[in-house]
Specification:
48% of the residues lie in helices and 21% in strands. It has helices at residues 2-26, 161-190, 206-219, 222-226, 228-247, 256-264, 269-288, 294-311, 331-366, and strands at residues 34-39, 43-45, 49-59, 64-65, 72-74, 77-82, 86-90, 95-105, 110-114, 118-121, 124-127, 131-136, 195-200, 324-329. The chain is built from nine helices and 14 strands.
């Protein structure tokens, strides 16, 4: 009977254990979180530094919060620097390994207990193991006090080229810029603007201008013999220009008959009739291919001269204008002076900057 009961309860126990194993196999595994803290050196002299490294391993995607340390971890152990957390991806990006370093020091000799670091992952808190830090004071040999040395006198540090080089370079630049600016200033003073004096002769009175052109026509006898058309064209153009400037109407755009009719309103009939004959002969030569005799050409030239002399207006000596002089500065000379002025300004700025840097280096070096 007892044996039967033992077999029965044994089978029930095995069934329960198997069922529990099946449940465990069917349910997902819980995320595993590990927190580890290590210290580079367990022993320090006063004032030395060491690093505490905190590592947290967890499943990827979980929210976590690292401990926020400010000035001290415990009393006597100061935090000098908190590095930025570093995250590594493991197991095909399924796991995270978060690392953070704390730089610590101490100025009191003692054995310090560093409590576990507390890390929050999800809604749970995890802790690392505790650490210990031993801080030693500087060993002093009190049995041999003669080994201690008293305060030393102040020694002047000799100057090296590295100390003087910036000042020397800026001083050289100052001399170079100053010399160049002085050269440009002298060049600017010597480079005076080139002024050219242009004489402008006053405009000749209409009768003198006309007589000057008639003398040119008169000097060339080939016109009258070989090309009478060109001869009469130039002669009548001179008369038309003279009439325009002397009487004030545009004879250049008028026909010969219109000019004669206009002149008859103001002038005596005799001088106008002679001019009328000149224009008539000129029209025959230019439009009807008339071939005048040589003496006829000379007579018409005399007629033009007589008309000018009869109608001219003489200027009084006190009203005659002399030649005018105009001073003109060459464009090239003006551009050169502008370039010199710009160069002087640039070198002046460079010299001022070099002077400022030289003075600054002197003050930093000797004061």
């Amino acid at each position: 009977m007892k044996r039967t009961l033992l077999l029965y309860y044994g089978r029930r126990l095995l069934g329960a254990v198997g069922f529990a194993a099946l449940l465990a196999a069917a349910s997902p595994a819980k995320a595993q979180v590990t927190v580890e803290a290590t210290i580079d050196s367990l022993q320090l002299l006063i004032g030395e530094q060491t690093k505490i490294k905190l590592q947290v391993s967890m499943d990827a995607g979980q929210k976590f919060r690292l401990p926020q340390l400010r000035d001290t971890i415990v009393r006597g152990v100061e935090v000098l620097d908190v590095a930025k957390p570093d995250t590594q991806l493991l197991n095909e990006n399924k796991r995270w390994l978060v690392s953070q370093e704390y730089t610590v020091t101490s100025f009191d000799s003692a054995l310090y207990y560093i409590p576990p670091f507390q890390v929050t992952v999800g809604d749970k808190e995890y802790r690392s193991e505790a650490l210990a830090l031993k801080v030693y004071s500087v060993p002093v040999d009190t049995l041999h006090p003669d080994q201690f040395f008293g305060p030393k006198t102040v020694h002047e540090v000799p100057l090296t080229w590295d100390d003087v080089a910036p000042m020397a370079y800026t001083a050289f630049l100052l001399l170079l810029a100053g010399g160049l600016m002085a050269f440009l200033v002298i060049r600017y003073r010597d480079n005076k603007p080139i002024i050219r004096i242009i004489k402008i002769e006053p405009k000749l009175p209409p009768h003198l201008a006309a007589m000057k052109k008639i003398e040119t026509i008169k000097a060339d006898k080939n016109y009258r013999k070989e090309d009478p058309k060109q001869y009469y064209t130039e002669l009548t153009d001179v008369i038309r220009t003279y009439i325009k400037e002397r009487f004030g109407f545009n004879a250049m755009e008028m026909t010969s008959s219109e000019i004669i009719a206009r002149l008859q309103e103001d002038k005596d009939q005799a001088s106008v009739n002679d001019l009328k004959e000149l224009f008539a002969t000129a029209d025959l030569v230019k439009f009807a291919k008339h071939s005048p005799l040589i003496n006829e050409n000379d007579m018409n030239l005399v007629t033009a001269i007589d008309f000018i002399n009869q109608t001219k207006i003489e200027e009084t000596p006190d009203k005659k204008e002399g030649p005018k002089e105009i001073k003109v500065e060459e464009k090239r000379s003006k551009q050169g002076r502008i370039v010199l002025l710009c160069s002087i300004a640039v070198t002046g700025i460079a010299a001022a900057a070099a002077l400022f840097l030289t003075i600054r280096h002197i003050v930093d070096l000797f004061f």
